[in-house]
């Protein structure tokens, strides 16, 4: 019943989000509207290498590519990272890609999270594809949105892989951009099972208290004041909706920061906002996934 309730909530959220983005067009599909909105946000952006990217020492973590589930005989594959020689079991994290896909930036973020004391699993919502240009990303994200049920099955499979195969005691989710929306969708799919959710500038966030009411985990969100999807008004409405239904919430709006401000491999990187949001993220995850008592 839990999973069925979660799937219904994700479906409702996607329907609401699609209506907001594409209210009147009869020629575009909802996926067209969402992918176009994301493409507009990234019109001057490319996933370029940057000296601002931080990584951990090579011997600090162990990593491997893993298969964490299947659907209709098609595998879900991802990138798993753990601290080297760490005591187990560690809490788990579902790490969710930006619209570019499971690229080097997300693998780096997964290693950084693992080094903080987590079994971190970066899921792949594009089934092995990675975008290097805005047009490629638009095509991939549009195809993914059109098959949103598979995305939900993907993140639910990741949860069960962490709890069943990796034996983690708690699980949180974290995602950026497209993955920020899917961090919230993961929470909606697992409303009483997930232990924490972190959202970085996810454009598709519900402001409907009825949709958000079943969530039982604390939620942290990081958004830029210059972002248009979601806009500051939407962020405030999201926070108000969570507060109205009594959720444990930390929502931060970073002045002068735009969409993708925390991505050091992009052109909108804001070091001050990225560093502060990372400190807050690590403290939040530690409080809700690691601390006892």
TrEMBL record:
Pfam families: DLH
Name the UniProt record assigns to this protein: Dienelactone hydrolase family protein
SUPFAM superfamilies in UniProt: alpha/beta-Hydrolases (SSF53474)
Record key words, sorted: Hydrolase, Signal
PROSITE patterns on file: PROKAR_LIPOPROTEIN (PS51257)
InterPro entries in the record: AB_hydrolase_fold, Dienelactn_hydro, Dienelactone_hydrolase-like
Gene Ontology MF annotations: hydrolase activity
Annotated ranges, domain Dienelactone hydrolase: 76-289
Signal peptide: 1-19
